[in-house]
Amino acid sequence: MTSCDVAIVGGGHNGLAAAAYLARAGLRTVVLERLDHVGGAAVSAEAFPGTGVRLSRYSYLVSLLPTSIVRDLGLDIDLRSRATASYSPTIRDGRPAGLYVGTDLGQRTRASFHALTGGDHEFEAWQRFYADVSTIAEVVEPTFVEALPDPAALRAQVDDGLWRAIVEEPLGTVIEERFADDLVRGVVATDGLIGTFADLHDPSLIQNRCFLYHLVGNRTGEWRVPVGGMGSVTDALARAVADAGATLTTGATVTAIEPGERPVVRWQDADGEHALEAGVVLANVAPWVLDGLLGEAPATQKPQGAQLKINFLLSRLPRLRSGEDPALAFAGTLHVGEEYAALGTAHAEAAAGAIPSSPPGEFYCHSLTDPSILGPLAGTGAQTLTYFGLHMPANLFATDPAGAKQEAVRRTVAAIDAHLAEPLMDCLVTDADGNPCLEAKIPQDVEADLNMPGGHIFHGDLSWPWAYDGEPLDTPARRWGVATDHPGVLLCGSGARRGGAVSALGGHNAAHAVFEMR
Asked: pTM of the prediction?
C-alpha cells in the first residue's frame, strides 16, 4: 500500500486504539511499529528465562482506561480489584508498625489508623478528603472522552475551596492542612509523584496535575490488575484492530514525516525503504520524538524521566517485622520510605545530584490478584513483585548508568529490608541460567527499549485535562487536545492532552478529531 486515509506512527496501546476506531469507521488505516511486537510499554514478557512467568514489564496497573472505550471496541479484558488498597510499614517510637488501608475503608482500616496515630482524627480526615476528591472525579472524568471542556464550567460544579486546593495551590498545602501524621501525609502525597519529579510545594503544580490523573480514573481512581498482565490489554486492542481491518506492520522504523496537504511517512524495514502517503498522520510517539521526525528543532527541552522500575520473582513473600500478613500487605500498594518528610529529603538529595539515601517507592504483588501470570510456578508459593521508585531522575544515571543503577537497586533493597524479618534477596528465585530473578530499568533503559525520550513515562509533563484560558479551539485537533503545528499531523499518544498512563485516551481523542475533520 502506498497511500491510505490514516497512517499511525507507533503501535503502542494508543495507536492501536486509534486504529480500531478509525478502521471500524471504514477508513483505510495503517499502523507502523518499530519493534517486532505491538503494545509499547503495555506488554507482558518472560523477563526471567526458563521460569515461564510473564510479568508486566513496564506499565503495570490500569485506572484511566474508560469503560466506554472498552465497550466501544469490544475489548475482552478482565481488570481485577486488589484485596488491599495499601500497606505502609514504618518505624514508630523505635518499634515496627504499619498503616493498613482496605479497599472498603472498613473497621480494620479505622483500627489501623487508630493504632498508628492514637486516635480517629486522621482516619476521619482521610475519609473526608477522598470523598471530596471523588466529587472532582465525578465532574472531570466523563470529559476525558469529549472535546476539551471549559474549566469555568467544571469549576462551577466543584466546591470553590476544593478546586483551589487541588488545581490552584501546591498539593503540599492541602495535605498539610488536612492531615497531621507524617506517614499519612506521605501516603496521600505519593499519587502526585508517580513518574513526576517535583517538590510537593512546586509552584508549577506539576505534582497537582499528576495527583488529579491518579485519582479520577472511571470516577473512582481505583487502580486494577489486568488479568494475564498488561499484555492482555494490548492483545485485546490488537484483536480489535485486526477485526476492524486495519493494516498493522511491525519491524517498520519510521525515519521521517513530511507534512503537507497529504503528509508522507517514510519508513524502512528489512526489505528496504518505503513511503506512505496519507490523508492524516497520527503520531503515537512523544512530541519531542515527533519534532525530530518532522525535521524540526525540538519545541521543548528533552523530557527527563524520574523512576526506577524493578521486577522480582520470589520463591515466597518475605515476612514483615510489623507482623502483618505478607499476603495482605503486598496485595495492594506497599509504600516504603514514603513518609512525608522522607519524600522531601529524597527529592532534595536527588535535586542535588545524589541517589536518595533511602529511596521512596512502592511494591506491588500482582500474582496475589492474578495467579495466572505465574504459569508453571502457580501454587508453589512463588510470587511476582514489582517496584516503582520515585525521585530517580535520569541525570543521576548519566555518568555511570550501570554503576548508578546497581547502587540505586542496593539502596532500594536496603530500604525494604529495614521493614522485613528476612532479607528480600534471600527470597529470590534463580532463572534457568542461575541468575537471581531481578530486572531493573532506569530512565535510560526505558528510552532505549521504548523510544520514550529521557525515559519519561508520560512523554513529558502532564497537562490539565481541560482548555486553558485563551487557548484557540478553532480546529478539531485543537478541540480534542491532539494538535501539532501541522494540520495533517496529530498527536495520539501519551504526549497528547489527557495522555499518560494506559488509558487509550490519546488514541480515542485523535480518532474523534479525525472524524470531525472529514
From this structure: 0.97
